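Dear support,

I submitted the protein below through the web form. The confirmation email said the job was done, but the results page showed an empty box. After a refresh the structure appeared. I'm attaching both so you can tell me whether what I see now is the final result or a partial one.
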Amino acid sequence: MENYLYILSNTAFDLLKIGISESNPEELADTLSNQNAAPGKFIVELKIKITNPHEIESKLDSNYYQFKTDKEDYNMIAL
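What the results page shows now:
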């Protein structure tokens, strides 16, 4: 199983979505873009294959928590 660290942008927001996924980030971006609630298209800005997803996710949460716009559901940070 492959894991990816990804950064997505959306043409309608000044936000970045940072996360880790077992899915290909391009597929995730397409899925998010096609949801009714998404006003713009999600674009993959960065994708990196990783081998230690839990460690990286923990570091992301501790370093970027204060920038999250929704502390419960999304890893969205303001630009």
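Response: this is the final, complete result; the empty box was a page-load delay. Residues 41 and 61 are 25 Å apart (CA to CA).
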